[in-house]
Design brief:
By secondary structure, the protein is α+β, with helices and mostly antiparallel strands. The protein has one domain. Helix content is 21%, strand content 33%. It is built from two helices and six strands; from the N terminus they run ββββββαα. The strands form two sheets. A four-stranded antiparallel sheet has the order 2-3-4-5. Strands 1-6 form a two-stranded antiparallel sheet. Strand 3 and strand 4 form a beta hairpin. The longest helix is centred in the C-terminal third of the chain and has 24 residues. The radius of gyration is 26 Å and the shape is elongated. It binds zinc ion. The site of zinc ion has 8 residues, from loops. Zinc ion (ZN) binds next to loops.
Length: 173
């Protein structure tokens, strides 16, 4: 583990830290939360540039995600090939590189995973045909239920038009 990189001891060009974690750093819970498969591999150069801590290199991690459309679990690899982070040092003498890696992997997990986006397996989502009209946008259930009353309101208004006596469809009598 690389919890405490001593920033004061870094050579001027920085220092390369490489390795892998097999243990689960993520502690993701919940039925639909991504499953950590591992390992996390990293190759990161840590350097100091004036007031900044620069971390650059690559990070990869294997997960299993649940497809938001078909509900199947599929393999997914986080590949941060051009990882770059610059953050203020703020007088710190150490850097918790493990926490850094963990956080950036979590931020890279897709919020709305679809199994055909697996970069490990070539897949076709079995539920894809059910959303043929717009494959890029699938409304959340909340939006569907929010829309339903609006549609009802419109029909109510239309229904009321003839009975007001001023509707354009009313025939003369
Ligand atoms: Zn799917």
């Amino acid at each position: 583990m690389f919890h405490n990189i001593h920033l004061n001891e870094l050579p001027s060009g920085g220092k390369l830290f490489e390795g892998e974690f097999r243990n689960d750093l993520f502690d993701l819970s919940g039925e639909e939360a991504p499953h950590y498969i591992g390992p996390v591999k990293f190759s990161l150069n840590v350097s100091i540039d004036g007031p900044w801590i620069i971390v650059e290199g690559s990070v990869t991690a294997r997960f299993e995600l649940e497809c938001a459309r078909c509900g199947q679990w599929f393999p997914y690899s986080i590949d941060l090939d051009e990882y770059y982070s610059q953050e203020p040092r703020e007088g710190e003498s150490t850097l918790d590189l493990t926490a850094h890696i963990r956080e950036d992997i979590l931020l890279s997990l897709p919020g709305y995973p679809r199994c055909e986006e697996s970069n490990v397996e070539d897949r076709t989502c079995p539920a894809a045909g059910k959303f043929a009209k717009d494959a890029e946008f699938v409304p959340f259930p909340e939006e569907e239920t929010a829309e339903a009353p609006k549609r009802t309101d419109i029909w109510n208004v239309l229904d009321q038009l003839p009975s007001t006596g001023s509707g354009p469809t009313k025939s003369k009598s």
